[in-house]
Amino acid sequence: MAFAVGVSAVENATASGRSICLNGRRPRHCSRGQSERGKPSLVVLNCDPRAEGHDEEKTDRGEGKKSGFQKAVGIALSFLKSVGIAVTKFFTKGPVLFFSGLVSGLLLTGAILLVPDGAAVGESVREKVALFDIIFHDIASNYVEPVDEEKLFETGMQAMLSSLDPYTQFENNLQAREMNVKANGKYGGVGLGLAQDLREPDRLVVMSAFEGYAFDEGVRPGDYIERVNDISVRGRNIEEVTNMLRGPPGTSVNLEVSRQGASSGITFKLDRRFVSIRDVPVATIVDANEGIGYIKLQSFARDAASELRRAIAKVSNETKLTGLVLDLRGNPGGLLTSAVEVAETLVPKDSLIVSTKGREVSDSETYTSSRQPALPDNVKLAVLVNGQTASAAEIVAGAVQDLDVGLVIGTKTFGKGLIQNIHSLPYRTALRYTVGRYYTPSGRCIQALNYSSDNGTLVAKEKLDADRLVRCFMGPRGGNAAFAI
């Protein structure tokens, strides 16, 4: 799903109290004129008619160090189990593999393959899994130069999954742990958010430094990470550096950064502590006279809805609230349950928030609001979005838009509306795969179809000013703001 508007359109919509559909279509649930809460709804559609559940982690770590070939076979076995083949025994000796259960006659000797009839998985699938084993083992053993078996295996898995969609992925142990951290919102670390610098891709820059953690030690957004414990991090990816910074609470790590204007690097000794990721880092009043509040929601971890409710209560206590800006720019999404709970704070009770459709009946569900909203009916709502607003954040923006409870303002959103399961696999790895898609209350699919387009480039072009947007939303006093369409 995508949103792309100019402030002039916001001003016209606000002045006339009507909905705007830039693509000439109105969502089926959108009414003309004022909504039941008295708020004009700006509807901007650029959707293709075409994510996040988490399985409970059940990790089989195995015993002892396994070879790359054994890892490959272990993953293949896990795949066979997941699609219905019972595997009760497994052992390897040389080139011979033996499975008992439904698969009782698989024999690999060179290029010879004997398979039973009537198994749950088609014969061609079993042949290809076995062929992968042969190729992997042959390359690992006989290639002209020694190969990194783990890298070879991961490359093969990723190549297979990339033919489906960009978000179905095999996650190695570091990536699997990172997924778990994002879902739970808690970890042992130093309180830093990092990003790859677009101008210098081999460098990492500090995007956020949490108060009470690294910020209190002097680290600031915009600092470049140079060394961790005297090890250069130039050319390393975010996962590697994040893993270097994290560790058991009570331990410390040395961090060297470079800062614009500083003649040399700056070194900090940071204590690792139990860090809780803040879904709402900012909740404040931007205009006390007009009673306008501003809340930044940066992620959808498990406590996102409760943090948002507390933030709404906080700004409501500081002034007589007449308008609220909910900033979802740069929000990559998170848990589906959190998206539904966040939407419940904004939409009327019993409203349809999102529906899901998938291959299986169990993957097709509807989610409605089961409680009263935290935002009073007489408070106007504006939601800010951009090219990095994705997934769960798009679910919330779509519900606000389709149900006419506020304005959605900004640039084209990312377009990630996939329901995904995370299947824990042996050796602390995981498989993230798509099982369905999200649909807004009016039936629009959030997921973009053109995976090759770079939706994220808009974030570098946009120039959104929250205060001016609020003023344009509240009345015709504000100036114009530049938007990338």
From TrEMBL:
Q: Which family does it belong to?
A: Belongs to the peptidase S41A family.
Q: Name one GO molecular function term.
A: endopeptidase activity
What residue ranges carry the coiled-coil annotation?
A: none
- Where does the PDZ domain lie? 178-246
Where is the organism placed in the taxonomic lineage, from the top?
A: Eukaryota, Rhodophyta, Stylonematophyceae, Stylonematales, Stylonemataceae
User: What is this protein's record name?
Assistant: PDZ domain-containing protein
Q: Which GO terms of type biological process are on file?
A: proteolysis
Q: Which keywords does this chain's UniProt record carry?
A: Hydrolase, Protease, Serine protease
Which species?
Rhodosorus marinus
Which PROSITE patterns does the entry mention? PDZ
Hydrolase keyword on record: yes
Top-rank taxon: Eukaryota
Determine if Membrane is one of this entry's keywords: no
